[in-house]
Specification:
about 90 residues; alpha+beta; Arc Repressor Mutant, subunit A; 5 helices
Length: about 90
């Protein structure tokens, strides 16, 4: 039962990370487009770049996204298959 509780706690933490509206919007955008940079996200979300960066940091720290640097630009994409499955349930018609 203790092992089961640890698994459930890990799943709950994953859900907490994507539960914020801005992070959910970022994850959904990456799910739909495949990849994106911060400047594009900032324009779509209409929030300051620092806000986008803070949310990207939380998503990256949780292992949900990964970034690939190309010069000064970092392009982000979804990394966690569980999140892709959750987004598919939430946003597929």
């Amino acid at each position: 039962m203790i092992e089961d509780m640890k698994f459930l706690e890990e799943q709950a933490e994953l859900l907490k990370v994507i539960a914020h509206p801005v992070r959910l919007c970022i994850a959904r955008g990456l799910w739909r487009s495949g990849s994106c940079n911060v400047t594009h996200m900032q324009c779509c979300l209409e929030v300051p770049q620092s806000t986008v960066s803070q949310h990207l940091g939380k998503l990256r720290q949780a292992g949900i996204i990964e970034g690939e640097r190309n010069g000064l630009e970092i392009t982000y994409r979804l990394k966690d298959e569980r999140v892709k499955a959750i987004l598919s349930c939430l946003f597929s018609q």
